[in-house]
Specification:
- The structure holds 3 protein chains of 3 kinds.
- Chain A has helices at 2-30, 38-52, 62-85, 102-113, 123-126, 129-158, 166-191, 222-230, 251-275, 279-306, 309-315, 330-343, 358-370, 379-396, 412-439, 441-445, 452-466, 485-515, 532-566; strands spanning 202-205, 213-216, 404-405, 408-409.
- Chain A is an all-alpha fold.
- Chain B is α+β, with helices and mostly antiparallel strands.
- Chain B is built from 23 helices and 22 strands.
- In chain B, strands 10-22-21-20-11-18-19 form a 7-stranded mixed beta sheet, sandwiched between helices.
- In chain C, the strands form 2 sheets. Chain C has a 3-stranded antiparallel beta sheet. A two-stranded antiparallel sheet of chain C has the order 1-2.
- Chain C is 46% helix and 8% strand.
- Chain C is extended.
- By secondary structure, chain C is mostly helical.
- Among the domains of chain C are: 1-42; 100-135, no CATH class.
- Classes of the chains: A mainly alpha, B alpha+beta, C mainly alpha.
- The interface between A and C is large, with 127 and 107 residues.
Chain lengths: 569, 699, 212
């Protein structure tokens, strides 16, 4: 047990230690300061700017920035949809796969363009290498870079700067952050055993019974795998994602994957600190997120370590719950991975969330509901500060001044945008389709686990879509050719799009509106937001507002399941 | 905490004299207030009124629905035990929801009632009078005061009520303004001077005759605007109130979605629930506490301003007071007493102090100004006495041209006192000589922050009188408090730098502008505003008008000119410039009250969830979450709803009076209020709901 | 900015970034893998003495007989099928997958415990029964299905619990087998991260090498 906690603690310590250096580097990138790679990248970027028609100096308003995101994402989405629908005759299709159904292709396109990577298909059996490399792998860069761009534009607005230019941010995110790390990471993964080949599956007779053959699926996994983690995409090359031994063959690759998925959102908080010139506030917020994260990791790890009481009774002693887990990761790395992947909106899995104990399921769902326990690429930090703005507004009135954040007054427009963003988008995109599906469990929901867990499965799927996470309680019959596949493909598209673009637009408009405000000087009458007290208040607001919306579903899902299991029923 | 008293509604007043004694006018008649409010609470159930408050409108709709399922429990689908018990239970819910609405309406009605009473007392000064309107041909026509228009000229004769706000353009007369200011001494009004030329409608001319040019259309005077505001009739929501309403509406929408989607979820886990229970849960969760009290808080804020004898032209201005970063204050009349007092005689030319005192007394016997009287008092302390026949002597009045005053003595001697330069000129003209120690004395006084007056008799200069500016007592502490709240004070004065710096240090202001012209005032305000600060200032003169308009909060003195009053967004009927400090506190208190009740309202939801969800979904096996150990689902729901209704009633006094404000830093305030309203808001309902559950005779 | 210009920028950047991240980057990585690390890049395939591929060092295979160390239960039976009866097309692409059974799902207990039913088609032999009849004292990894269904490992304890049976079945001394377990155990990374696991395929290959 000690060994388990030690590796959890060291993994966390590693990415926390990376935050200031990497966060500082990202700040340099987005502030346009000199960096080490300039001699190589400046000419490359110059070429990319001229090829894409980007004017480096052009500043965009919030609405222009949002439009650029919508147009470019639409164009990219159309390209991918075309590639997937035509994979049958396009090259790089060693297993001769035909086109998937139109709704699967549509869902996959939208799911990848929104940085969600929710998969209603099995990688090996549905998509050609071509679709994966040319389509999904490409989206893993652009959707992650889009998220980073939104995040940095928000931080710029928050700190009173012009929002910047979307295409510049998109390109720089790729050339200076995602691509260099991916190249290094892919090489490391290959060294550690992750395949990178265009050759098709190998079929071998099994050792025990040569009459039976084993098909070993392969593919160009390594380059895909690293950006899947680093970009918080999470869409596995294979059906079973990072649990697959070719995606994540050993604890070393697992360490790389965990650090890769959390390093950007964690360091991004520090990047904010550089922009706001308030590292103190950045560390306080960081500490708040880290505290909730540690609590969540601990809860998940304990419940998985203690295992399933019903099974333990059969085994005769307490053993960890290893259903859906790999031996090489065990309870500790599985619980850590699961908590991190749901918190960061990565959505990759190295163990199957559906089979987690109810308390673990509770934590994973809560992560999706809150969206800020590190949060998505770029957008997570933006959400964090939108929460902070809301906390400033609710409690800031109590010091007897119009609430202000970083010297900018929080007024009607900001409250409309922040509260809509934080409070309303989620219930609309999760609870409403969830209730519809549960009203017709036979026709629509396709639930595989009976009782309260079934409710969790449905809510999890929409929460994962709306939070742009992509992981799932995968027992759900959400893929074609199941009869419920069409409903799931289309209804989650609503949550995917609503959960991505409405907040994106709201964040950009919020940033725009804040950046135009005349800053008010700080006095002792100003509510300081960089104090322990206020950070504690923010944590309270985050947890209470999150709990108020989702307490009923948590009560009827994982909590009821936990009580049921405790009773031994 | 001692200092906090300064900001409660009845502070121990030093500056500007005891305010309570002057506050007898708007002594509103509060009798019958509650009876009327109860009646109004029911009248306000009209959906056309309720719909303006989105949170309470949801409760209104919920009440109708529960009333319907009381009549027929199966109206929205079959209920398992649709018997009499179900009907009684639904009826009980309907009853409590109804009273939740009534209580919220009652809060607003009480606030409005108090405002109305305030307005009535203001309005009593406003009754129609007959005005003598001067027609262009010079003839006089009797018209109703309501027919007067801006620019009309009226003649007012002793004993008449002044028909409307205006400027005196002809005549001199004393006016009783006690109806408005509470100051019983009549005020002299005459044309030409800034201060004394403006008259307010509803005041009474006691003597002589005036011609007044009307400056306000009927119903547009300050009093009329204030009446509309305190009555709540014309109350437009302030920016913070609008933002808060947005948040409350969004929260309400969130809970609507949560509750609307709960039914299929509950059915799926085979723990079905009824529409009445869902509505109960909805009403318990939406922020009814703050939603029900929000408008009462706003109206009560205006009312508090009115009680301070300040007329605000908008709620926005009152709220802005809480945000003020910088106060720009005139020295004279605000920081120092309007009158300087003689404090020392400095002899020159070898005279003794007694000799100076004797000469000063001789020069001041006819001087009825406060300065003059203070000189007489000081001289008498030095043992000086009048040694001539007062009847035979002749007083020489101060004029702006001569800049001196004095007495022509019966023996033909001339005693004079005045500005040092003027006296020098006088002495020279009488053939006297000047000595260097006069200049030394003059500079000495200036350095101390005083005003030097030279005294001479005939061609001899006796000495210099040191007129001292007296800083109002208690101001230093108030400026300290303001500083603690993050408000900077800037003093403006026409004095030279040396004098100004001495006064500034004595009063404890943060900054000062010496030798200030009226233009400097507006420059200071613009400079502060360009740094993003909100500026408040007081003013009375016509040349203050642009600065008053430029300031975020401009408070004009009622004694000031019409132009100043038009430009300001508040008028202080007591003409007490230090009242700005109280207004800052009122503005802050208004915001704090809203924030505190919002926090409290949201924090309450945790307990309500823990009361209701585990009991109604006991079939789902989550009964263990019933940490309060409530008796039954019925009892849990009724208890939570009763708490929800009663808390509105319980918080009405707080909403009307406002959360106690203490001049602390923002962090201290947050800490304190989070503890009371945040943490308290989490804990209080757990206790209260449990208690109600224990008392309730429901199984 | 005109719509045409905005649209043109969106389309141009779509293709330019596609070229960079969808084509150039993978091409570079595939070339690197094939040229520099061909073994790993092609799936860490294991070959026998004759040079034929027998499996992958990273992918498990099904073992249920007494002669071999048994592997974990798998929902896809380790992506295997009889080539003659592969209607599902498993061998065309290879598959992976998990049970996704919730801990509260009665099916999980039935799978582990077994369920007797008058209808023999509905009769379930539990993993636990299977282990007990094979004389292996059960460990969690042997009753729970893995995440990938391809888990190459079992815990060292599960391996040790099988030594006696394998030794008996092959008429070997346990002491001859035990070193093989140690040789085929993948330890924790840096001695800290992950859990040690015994690679069943490699262990069984070693076993066959010891005694064909």
């Amino acid at each position: 047990m000690f060994q388990g906690w030690l590796q959890i603690a060291l993994t966390i310590a590693l990415f926390v230690a990376l935050a200031p250096t990497f966060g500082g580097y990202m700040a340099q990138v987005y502030l346009g300061q000199k960096t080490l790679l300039d001699p190589v990248l400046v000419p490359v970027e110059g070429m990319l700017y001229s090829l894409t028609g980007t004017e480096k100096k052009e500043e965009m308003t919030g609405w222009q920035y949002a439009r650029a995101i919508l147009y470019s994402n639409l164009a990219m989405g159309l390209l991918i949809f075309f590639l997937i629908m035509n994979q049958g005759w396009l090259p790089l299709n060693p297993t001769g796969l035909g086109a998937p159904t139109w709704d699967t292709a549509l869902h996959t396109t939208i799911s990848f363009i929104t940085n969600t990577n929710q998969q209603h298909y099995s990688g090996e059996t549905t998509l050609s290498y071509g679709s994966q490399i040319l389509g999904l792998g490409y989206h893993m860069f652009t959707s992650a870079a889009t998220g980073l761009a939104v995040g940095i534009a928000f931080i710029r607005g928050l700190t009173g700067r012009p929002l910047g230019n979307f295409y510049v941010d998109l390109i720089r995110s790729i050339t200076r952050i995602l691509l260099p790390i991916s190249i290094v990471g892919a090489v490391a993964l290959m060294l550690l055993g992750v395949p990178e080949t265009l050759a098709g599956p190998v079929v071998v007779p099994t050792l025990e019974d040569p009459a039976v053959s084993q098909a070993i699926a392969r593919g160009p996994v390594a380059h895909f795998e690293i950006i899947k983690q680093l970009g918080e995409n999470g869409g596995g090359f294979f059906a079973i994602n990072s649990a697959h031994p070719f995606e994540n063959p050993n604890p070393a690759t697992n360490l790389i994957q965990i650090v890769a998925m959390v390093v950007i959102p964690s360091a991004f908080i520090y990047t904010y600190g550089v922009f706001a010139n308030s590292r103190r506030q950045a560390w306080l917020i960081y500490g708040m997120v880290l505290t909730i994260y540690l609590l969540f990791v601990t809860l998940t790890a304990i419940s998985e370590y203690q295992g399933n009481p019903a099974v333990n009774a059969l085994l005769g002693n307490v053993q960890p719950n290893l259903e859906g887990k790999e031996v090489r990761f065990g309870w500790a790395q599985s619980a850590l991975f699961a908590t991190t992947t749901t918190g960061t909106m990565c959505g990759a899995v190295n163990s199957l969330h559906d089979s987690f104990m109810p308390l673990g399921g509770f934590v994973l769902l809560s992560n999706l509901f809150l969206q800020i326990i590190w949060g998505g690429q770029g957008t997570g930090t933006a959400y964090l500060f939108a929460y902070l703005i809301l906390a400033v507004f609710v409690t800031g009135l109590m010091v007897g001044r119009t609430p202000e954040f970083l010297g900018r007054k929080i007024e009607k427009r900001e409250v409309v945008l922040a509260s809509f963003l934080i409070l309303l988008v989620h219930p609309i995109t999760i609870l409403i389709p969830g209730a519809i599906a549960l009203a017709f469990p036979e026709q629509l929901a396709g639930i595989s686990n009976p009782g309260f867990h079934g409710l969790s499965q449905v809510i999890y799927e929409y929460a994962s879509a709306a939070a742009n996470n992509g992981s799932g309680f995968e027992g759900l019959a959400d893929s074609q050719p199941a009869s419920t596949g069409l409903w799931w493909n289309l209804s989650t598209c609503f949550s995917l799009l609503g959960g991505r673009y409405i907040p994106t637009i709201a964040l950009l408009l919020l940033a725009d509106s804040l950046s135009r405000k005349q800053p008010v000087p700080m006095t002792v009458g100003t509510l300081r937001t960089d104090t322990f007290l206020f950070t504690g208040v923010t944590a309270g607001v985050v947890l209470i507002l999150g709990a108020l919306t989702f307490f009923p579903v948590l009560a009827l899902g994982p909590i009821a399941e936990a009580f049921q299991m405790a009773k031994g029923g | 905490m001692e200092s906090s008293n300064q900001f409660s509604s009845t502070p121990p007043r030093a500056p500007g004299g005891p305010r309570q004694s002057r506050r007898h006018t708007p002594k509103a008649d509060m009798s019958g207030l509650y009876q009327r409010a109860v009646k109004q609470a029911f009248v306000k159930l009209d959906p056309r009124i309720t719909v303006k408050n989105p949170v309470m409108f949801i409760v209104w709709v919920g009440t109708i629905v529960t009333a319907l399922v009381t009549v027929n429990p199966n109206l929205f689908g079959n209920v398992s035990d649709a018997g009499l018990n179900q009907q009684i239970f639904n009826g009980l819910i309907t009853f409590i929801l109804f009273f939740t609405l009534v209580f919220a309406n009652f809060a607003e009605a009480v606030a409005e009632g108090r405002g109305k009473a305030q307005a009535d007392s203001l309005r009593s000064t406003r009754s129609d009078t007959i005005a003598r309107k001067i027609l262009p041909d010079g003839s006089v026509q009797e018209v109703s005061s309501t027919d007067l228009r801006r620019g009309d000229q009226v003649k007012v004769i002793a004993g008449d009520m002044i028909p409307s706000d205006g400027d005196v353009i002809q005549g001199i007369g004393s006016v009783d303004e006690s109806a408005i200011t509470g100051e019983s001494a009549p005020v002299l009004k005459q044309p030409g001077t800034d201060i004394a030329s403006s008259v307010t409608g509803g005041t009474r001319l006691l003597s002589d005759e005036l011609v007044v040019r009307i400056t306000a259309d009927p119903g547009k005077g300050f009093i009329d605007r204030m009446i509309a505001l305190v009555e709540g009739a014309e109350r437009t929501k302030t920016p913070n109130e609008i933002a808060l309403t947005v948040l409350l509406v969004v929260l309400t929408q969130v809970f609507l979605i949560v509750i609307a989607t709960m039914s299929p979820l509950a059915d799926y886990v085979q723990s079905p629930t009824t529409i009445a229970i869902l509505i109960s849960l909805l009403v318990a969760l939406i922020p009814t506490t703050i939603g029900g009290l929000l408008s009462a808080i706003g109206i009560a804020g205006m009312d508090r301003v009115a009680q301070f004898n300040v007329i605000a032209t908008s709620g926005r201005a009152v709220e802005a007071c809480g945000d003020i970063n910088t106060l720009v204050l005139d020295k004279t009349g605000t920081i120092t007493l309007g009158n300087r007092l003689a404090s020392q005689f400095i002899p020159v030319n070898g005279y003794s102090e007694q000799a100076v005192a004797q000469a000063a007394l001789a020069a001041s016997v006819f001087d009825e100004t406060p300065e003059g009287r203070s000189i007489v008092r000081l001289a008498e302390e030095w043992g000086a006495a009048i040694d001539f026949d007062r009847q035979a002597a002749e007083g020489i009045e101060f004029s702006a041209r001569t800049r001196m005053s004095g007495t022509n003595l019966p023996d033909g001697g001339e005693a004079r006192k005045g500005a040092v330069d003027a006296i020098k000129g006088f002495v020279r003209s009488r053939g006297g000589t000047l000595s260097a120690d006069l200049d030394t004395a003059y500079e000495g006084v200036s350095r101390l922050g005083g005003t030097p007056l030279a005294v001479c008799k005939n061609s001899d200069i006796y000495g210099v009188i040191y007129l001292k500016d007296i800083v109002k007592p208690g101001l230093r502490e108030r400026f300290d408090q303001l500083r603690r709240m993050g408000v900077r004070t800037i003093m403006l004065t026409g004095d030279n730098r040396i004098t100004a710096s001495v006064i500034a240090a004595e009063a404890g202001v943060d900054d000062f502008i010496a030798e200030a012209t009226p233009e400097d005032k507006i420059d200071v305000i613009r400079r502060e505003q360009s740094q993003g600060k909100l500026v408040a200032m007081t003013g009375d003169g016509t040349n203050d008008a642009p600065a008053l308009a430029q300031a975020n909060v401009g408070v004009a003195m009622n004694s000031g000119t019409q132009a100043a009053k038009e430009a300001a967004n508040m008028v202080d009927l007591d003409s007490d410039p230090t009242k700005l400090i109280d207004l800052v506190a009122i503005g802050k208190q208004l915001l704090i009250t809203r924030g505190a009740l919002t926090t409290f309202s949201i924090a309450n939801d945790i307990a309500k969830y823990f009361a209701i969800i585990p009991t109604i979904f006991a079939a789902a096996g989550i009964g263990s979450l019933n940490v309060m150990g409530l008796k039954s689902p019925q009892s849990a729901i009724i208890s939570a709803l009763i708490y929800n209704a009663l808390i509105i009633l319980a918080l009405i006094p707080l909403a009307l009076k406002g959360v106690q404000f203490r001049p602390l830093t923002a962090n201290q305030l947050l800490q304190r209020n989070i503890l009371i309203y945040g943490v308290g808001g989490v804990i209080a309902p757990f206790i209260a709901i449990k208690l109600i559950d224990l008392i309730l005779p429901i199984a | 900015m005109s719509f045409a210009r905005e649209a043109s920028r969106a389309i141009r950047s779509t293709f330019v970034l596609w070229l960079l991240t969808g084509i150039l980057y993978p091409l570079l990585m595939i070339a690197f893998g094939q040229l520099v690390l061909p073994d790993q890049a092609n799936g860490s395939l294991l070959k026998n003495a004759q040079g034929t591929v027998v499996g992958s060092a990273l992918i498990g295979q099904p073992f249920t007989s007494d002669r071999y160390f048994n592997s974990r239960p798998s929902t896809t039976n380790y992506s295997t099928a009889n080539p003659q009866q592969d209607e599902a097309g498993v061998l065309k692409t290879g598959v992976s997958g998990a049970s996704n059974l919730a801990p509260s799902n009665p099916a999980l207990l039935e799978r582990i415990q077994g369920k007797s039913d008058p209808d023999p088609a509905k009769n379930i032999t539990g993993d636990l029964e299977r282990l007990q009849s094979a004389g292996i004292s059960p460990t969690a990894d042997l009753v729970y299905t893995s995440g990938s269904s391809l888990d190459p490992h079992i815990t060292p304890e599960a391996a040790r619990n099988q030594v006696a049976r394998v030794a008996a079945s092959r008429s070997l001394q346990p002491s001859q087998i035990e070193p093989l377990i140690a040789q085929n155990t993948d330890g924790r990374f840096l001695g800290i991260f992950g859990e040690p696991g015994v690679n069943v395929l490699k262990l069984n290959l070693a076993l066959d090498a010891l005694q064909p």
